[in-house]
Amino acid sequence: MEDVNTRKNSGATATPVKRQGTTKRAASSGPASERRDHLVKLAAELFARKGFQATTVREIAEEAGILSGSLYHHFDSKETIVDEVLTTFLDDLVGRYRVALEQDGDPRTILSEMVRIGFSTLEPHRAAITVMQNDWSYLRSLPGDRFDYLVRAEDEVERMWVEQIKLGQAAGQLRADVDPKLTYRMIRDTIWVAVRWFRPGGRLNTAGLAEHYITVLFDGVATGERSSHRG
Amino acid sequence: MEDVNTRKNSGATATPVKRQGTTKRAASSGPASERRDHLVKLAAELFARKGFQATTVREIAEEAGILSGSLYHHFDSKETIVDEVLTTFLDDLVGRYRVALEQDGDPRTILSEMVRIGFSTLEPHRAAITVMQNDWSYLRSLPGDRFDYLVRAEDEVERMWVEQIKLGQAAGQLRADVDPKLTYRMIRDTIWVAVRWFRPGGRLNTAGLAEHYITVLFDGVATGERSSHRG
DNA sequence: GTCTATATGAGGATAGAC
DNA sequence: GTCTATCCTCATATAGAC
Where is this region: Disordered (chains A, B) (predicted)? Predict the structure, then answer.
């Protein structure tokens, strides 16, 4: 298993988020090249910093010390590059969620673990997550179905979370008066948007962030007994 | 008080987020034109849907039923348009926060009100909030200091929130073991990112969303007494 | 695998007629 | 206030030499 898209899956079910592509060396296909991987990483950083559209193939090439025409020896379009950035991240994420769900544990424990997984991806996949957030709607708006897998992956992840939240409610661990889907979305957003401001080296690392958030998520920020405070 | 940038401020201190611009009819200056306002609204929708860069001046003009050249009678650049979209939103938001802080009330009450204000902007300023999130880093990366006010406004808002959180801790209403700045960021992110999925007409309106979030924020999603659960 | 050279198109913006 | 016509720049992508 040398494929760059699955080798970080920690041995989990390795079903990729996306089917085989139809273009030159689409993500999830073909033998991985280290040179190619390196170019993808450079491009990801630029995409994250300036946005996908604002990043030119000339800049990517310059960053790699070659000319823009040479990039097309490795990729058949700029879209193919960003495609590979995103699938690499999504395959890793979904794979790790699957592992978490395979463990046995009560819903609250599993949900905590899923929160930890989310935060733990912030550093290794910072660029990809940033691109996903900033360029999601643009990529989705492109003609063709090339980026439909983004929505499919999102749906699969949502199902995983919502199911655990519902199980937690059924087991009496989570309050019955919160909306599972709404709660999932707020958790998800809180985790991913942290890429905007999280920088390694601050007071808290991502593990610390995760524990802080788990505390607030389950128990809230108010002191004392649960209140019926009227704001 | 006919200026579009301040007329939604409910009578609060009307200090705009931004100084007078230097370009043709920059936001917060000059007599407002309804035609111009309309064009800004059309552009905002396109910016939100496709991203600022992916939206061409030709598309904006077409949406308005004119040709691209005619747009330059109203604005001297595409940047001026997005500038106006953002300042209109920020002036409204900051103005309303200022009003909330002028009321007397304990920190928890004020914080709840600030959460409500945030969610209440989701509908009227959906496009602007979307643009802020998706194009923030690109706009900030442009040469010149034109969009520096984005950071200034962000800083002012952060100070407002963090101060109330600290007051809440000092008053014993909020737990002392959560980080004020971190907590603020998570609240902020949770509110704004909701523009990505919130659509009017669903089960909950923005007021309902706000109450749901206030509940979870203060009391958490876990049932029963505060737990020291080991996830 | 990279370079040179270039096709091809689209974008923001302008000038001046109406 | 809008249109016509157009400039200029810069983008992605290609072809073929090395």
Answer: 1-35
- Backbone phi, then psi, for A179, in 5-degree steps? -80, 120
pLDDT above 70 for B76: yes
**B19 within some domain:** no
**Total domains in the fold of chain B:** 1
pLDDT 10s digits, A144-163: 999 999 999 999 999 999 99
Helix (H), strand (E) counts: chain B? 9, 0
Q: Does any CB of chain B come closer than 8 Å to the CB of residue A171?
A: no
How long a stretch of residues is chain B?
A: 231
> At B92, which CATH number?
1.10.357.10
CA–CA dist A147, B19 (Å, integer) = 41
Identify whether B190 is part of a domain: yes
Which residues neighbour strand D (beta carbon < 7 Å)?
A: A 55-58, 68-69, 72, 76-79; B 33, 35, 61, 65-70, 73-74
Residue A228 placed within a domain: no
Q: Does a structural domain hold residue A113?
A: yes
In this predicted model, what pLDDT tens digit does every residue of A28-62 receive, in sequence order? 444 478 999 999 999 999 999 999 999 999 999 99
Q: What is the largest CA-CA distance in chain A?
A: 65
B181 CB below 7 A from strand C atoms: no
